[in-house]
Design a protein that fits this description.
Strand order of the largest sheet: 1-5-4-3-2
CATH class: Alpha Beta
Oligomer: single chain
Number of helices: 4
Shape: globular
Mean pLDDT: 96
Largest sheet: 5 strands, mixed
Number of domains: 1
Length: 138
């Protein structure tokens, strides 16, 4: 089961993020799924779809690579790396046309072959700094 769960999460990053297949969200995400760490509060499936659409608008060429995977029971944890060119305004500010590299970690709970809950953390500050949106003090 652990191998199947890990394969599902790898497929999620490949299809939903790198390939931008929004239809894969419905295939892999449970209707009652809750997603944490991508906004001010938890997102339901519809909220995640909006986040995905906005993010893919901002980074239409985003590529996510899973660097490491750990499984335990119904949980899969991945450490991932991402790259993309910021060429859209989906994040709420004009496109900078700059490339950014960022990384993160995601924990996913899987039930009956579908994602039921997810926790995300990624280096948004580093990404925004690379894009010139945030300037850190010297």
């Amino acid at each position: 089961m652990a191998d199947q769960n890990a394969a599902l999460v790898h497929r999620w990053f490949a299809e939903v993020w790198t390939q931008g297949k929004a239809t894969s969200i419905d295939e892999m995400m449970s209707p009652g799924c809750v997603v944490h760490g991508l906004g001010a509060g938890p997102l339901d499936k519809a909220g995640f779809k909006r986040f995905h659409s906005d993010y893919r608008n901002a980074f239409p060429d985003v590529k996510i690579v899973v660097d490491q995977t750990v499984t335990e029971g119904d949980m899969v944890a991945v450490r991932w790396s991402g790259t993309g060119k910021h060429s859209g305004d989906g994040l709420g500010f004009p496109a900078t046309n700059k490339r950014a590299q960022f990384g993160g970690m995601t924990f996913v709970r899987i039930q009956n072959g579908k994602l039921i809950e997810g926790w995300n953390i990624f280096d948004q500050l580093g990404m925004l700094t690379q894009l010139g949106i945030v300037r850190l003090p010297a």
